[in-house]
Every structure is written in structure tokens, then in C-alpha cells.
Design goal:
Elements: H1 2-29, H2 34-39, H3 45-55, H4 61-73, H5 87-122, H6 127-141, H7 144-158, H8 174-200, H9 203-210, H10 215-226, H11 228-243, H12 247-252, H13 258-267, H14 271-299
Helix pairs in contact: 1-14, 5-6, 5-8, 5-11, 6-8, 7-8, 8-11, 11-14, 13-14
């Protein structure tokens, strides 16, 4: 197991190098002059040139790239051009908000999605199955920004039950977490239903039923456990995506997480911050995928990483 983990971490090195190179190039392809944006529309040409020199944008592109990669080797993400503070410190201040939002959303998605998928599978082709399938498609198809705005209109503006934006109170997380969970609920429910239907048709399930095992025991101990691998894969990918920063959801609800920070940084052409955030997202996906693979061996004893 340790050898497998070390090998995966070594494989991640060229992946991170590729991500760093890609984000460096794409950041420079963004339209607009970052020096002008940071200096302001009323700044003189001399002030703009001074900002450009501070950012190192007056250097050749290959010099900027070598300087960027050199800083990464020393785990230095640089200084934010917009906030004027270290990129790592600014990101660290936003991560707790995104983690809280992601954990809450994935918890809702796992509980509701798995139970809905199991219910649809054991009641196949019944009105319950059709209703769950329709709601799952609805959740997958629903645009996040539209759903978020509708929830704000209903629960914040009309009913005055919940805050419309910000993170000033514990109840502020309810609307963005629900909005973020809707897509994952639909996807997990669909995957759970399909995986459960495949397992419920196996001979050992019919044997367990024929021996008189309780139906609930057959479903949750025998069927669900053997159907978990694709469900775990889906949950892992969704959790990685949520931790990577739900840009639209955080923007709609003015949630001070890394997703909103990324959007603001792109708007202000803050190259160091954009580069640091994209690298954070890449590391998040790599770690979540590794943990998901390790969880396979725990769920299914037949899987060994030798």
C-alpha cells in the first residue's frame, strides 16, 4: 500500500508541472492589461509602467515562467497583485469557508442521493422509481445560478427565513449548501440506482432472500456494499469538485470562499492569485482521487494494491 501511495505521488509531480505551465500560459492569454486594471483607469502611463515593473510583466515571457517555477519549487506562490498580501495567506483565509460549504453539501448529497437511489432500485418501474428518476434528472439539469437566485427570492426576500448572502451566521450556509448539493444528489441517486439494479440481479442476492434473510439486511449489507465502488467514485469526484471551489454558488450567495476569490482574481487580472488557486484545485483533485482509490481496498477486500 505504501509503495502504491508513493508511486501515485510521484506520478502527480508531472501532472502538477503541466497544470502550472498551462495556467501560466492561459493567465497571460486573458484579455486586458493587468497593470492598467490594478493601477486604475485614472492612472498615468508612468504609474501603469511602475505597476507592470512591480509585477514583473515587463520581463520576457520565458523569464516570467522561470521565475514562477522557481518560486513554486520553494513553495512560494508569490504576492497577490490585487490584495497586496501573500497568495498563500489569502487562500488560507478563504479555505475554511469552502471546506465548510463543501462538507455540508456532500453530506446532504450522500445521504439523500444514496437513499433515493436505493429506494428507486428496490421499487423499480413503480411511481416512486419514476418520481426519483425525474427529480434526479431535474437536479442534474438545473443551472446552479438560477436555482440559487430562486432560493434567495423565496426564502430570503419573500419569507425572510434565511440570509440572502454572506457568512455572518450559521444559517447562512443553508441556502448555498442546498444549492450546491442539488446536482450531486441527482447524480449520486442515478449512479446508486444503476449500480444497485445490477447487484440485485446477482445469484447471491436471490440466495440470501431464499434463505429467509430480512429484506433490509439483504439490501443494505449485501447489495449496497457490493454496489459501492461506482458510488464512491462519484462521491469522490463530486467532493473534489466542491472543494475545488464552487464558483457560481459562492458568487451568487457572496460566500467568501476560494471559488469567489478565483472569480474576483480573474476579474482583476491577478496572475499570482489565479495561478495559486488553480494549483490548489489540482492538488485537491489529486489527493481526493488517491483517497478514493485507497477507500476501494477498504470497501472491497478483493482489491489489493501490491
Amino acid at each position: 500500500m505504501l509503495t502504491y501511495v508513493v508511486r501515485r505521488l510521484l506520478i502527480a509531480i508531472p501532472t502538477l508541472w503541466g497544470v502550472a505551465t498551462g495556467v501560466f500560459i492561459m493567465a497571460r492569454l486573458l484579455p486586458g492589461d493587468p497593470a492598467r486594471v490594478i493601477a486604475g483607469v485614472l492612472a498615468t502611463p508612468e504609474q501603469v509602467e511602475h505597476v507592470r515593473h512591480q509585477l514583473g510583466l515587463d520581463q520576457p515571457l520565458y523569464v516570467q515562467y522561470l521565475d514562477f517555477m522557481g518560486q513554486l519549487l520553494h513553495l512560494n506562490l508569490g504576492t497577490s497583485a490585487h490584495f497586496g498580501s501573500p497568495v498563500a495567506a489569502e487562500i488560507a483565509s478563504r479555505i475554511p469557508y469552502t471546506v465548510a460549504l463543501a462538507v455540508t453539501a456532500i453530506a446532504i448529497a450522500v445521504v439523500v442521493g444514496v437513499l433515493a437511489g436505493v429506494g428507486a432500485a428496490i421499487r423499480r418501474n413503480t411511481p416512486l422509481d419514476l418520481a426519483i428518476s425525474a427529480l434526479s434528472v431535474f437536479g442534474i439539469s438545473m443551472p446552479v445560478y438560477w436555482l440559487g437566485l430562486m432560493l434567495i427570492v423565496i426564502f430570503a426576500i419573500q419569507l425572510h427565513w434565511l440570509p440572502a448572502a454572506g457568512a455572518d451566521s450559521p444559517s447562512s450556509i443553508i441556502l448555498p449548501a442546498f444549492t450546491l448539493a442539488v446536482f450531486s444528489v441527482g447524480l449520486i441517486a442515478r449512479i446508486t440506482r444503476g449500480s444497485m439494479l445490477e447487484v440485485l440481479n446477482q445469484d447471491y442476492i436471490r440466495t440470501a432472500r431464499a434463505k429467509g434473510a430480512p429484506f433490509r439486511l439483504v439490501v443494505f449489507k449485501h447489495a449496497l456494499r457490493n454496489a459501492l465502488l461506482p458510488i464512491i467514485t462519484t462521491i469522490g469526484l463530486q467532493f473534489g469538485s466542491l472543494l475545488g471551489g464552487a464558483v457560481l454558488t459562492e458568487s451568487v450567495f457572496s460566500w467568501p470562499g476560494v471559488g469567489r476569490l478565483l472569480l474576483d482574481s480573474i476579474f482583476f487580472r491577478d496572475y499570482p492569485m489565479v495561478q495559486g488557486l488553480v494549483l490548489l484545485f489540482a492538488v485537491t483533485y489529486i489527493v481526493i482521487n488517491l483517497l478514493t482509490d485507497l477507500l476501494y481496498a477498504y470497501v472491497d477486500p478483493r482489491i489489493r494494491y501490491d
